[in-house]
Amino acid sequence: MTNFQVHSIDSAPDRAKPTLEKAQKAMGFIPNLYGTFAESPATLEAYATIGSLFDRSSFNATERQIVLLATSFENGCEYCMAAHTTIAGMQKLPADVVEALRSGNAIPDARLEALRSFTLQVVRERGWVKDADVQAFLDAGFTQAQVLEVILGVGMKTISNYTNHVASIPLDGAFQPNAWTAPEQAPAGA
């Protein structure tokens, strides 16, 4: 297995340093995900930029975390599930919503469940979502703009999920209390 360096501000390529400094200022530390992304300053900047744009979408904090956690669950990303569970707690998401997302169960609130379900369909079907699934999402009170914003969130999270899969990023101490293990899945093509 290839070992990827988790960069600090000092060890990072010069082009990555401003983004790492901004992350440290905002979060109080540099998450290992960002330190790993720093190997490619373009990837680090892209992830931070897409994250900033997703934060400005029409979704509220709870809805954004649903998209990010549902994507991470479906992609089996243990790092991102722990990190976003921690963030969800900081943003005061309802505990039953977070538990449903971590266990892969339906969210009790019908509208939020429609968002979780639609996000899972986007990930599972790689965007080839059935018209009926789009319509169910719209019927739950979401908009066509939010269809596209789900895709934005899925794109952002896919970057970090896949990076974690390739690099096996060590879980930060701040996220350890919310460690998560991906459920067993059948091998692809089985």
Write the layout of secondary structure elements.
Layout: H1 17-27, H2 32-37, H3 41-55, H4 61-74, H5 78-90, H6 95-103, H7 110-124, H8 131-139, H9 144-167
Helix pairs in contact: 3-9, 4-5, 4-6, 4-7, 4-9, 7-8
Describe the structure.
61% of the residues lie in helices and 0% in strands. The chain is mainly alpha-helical and 190 residues long. The protein folds into two domains: 12-56, no CATH class; 60-158, AhpD-like. The protein is globular and about 50 Å long. The chain starts with 16 loop residues before the first helix and ends in a 23-residue tail after the last helix.
**Portion in beta strands:** under 5%
- Overall geometry comes to globular
| Uncertain stretches | none
The CATH architecture of the largest domain would be Up-down Bundle
Largest sheet, in brief, is: none
Order of helices and strands: HHHHHHHHH
Rg from Cα:
17 Å
What do we call the CATH topology of the largest domain?
AhpD-like
Helix content: 55-70%
Q: How many angstroms does the end-to-end distance come to?
A: 24 Å
How many DSSP helices? 9
Give the CATH level 1 class of the largest domain: Mainly Alpha
User: Could you say how many structural domains there are in total?
Assistant: 2
Structural class: mainly alpha
Number of DSSP-assigned strands: 0
CATH-wise, what's the superfamily of the largest domain? Answer: AhpD-like
Name the average pLDDT: 95
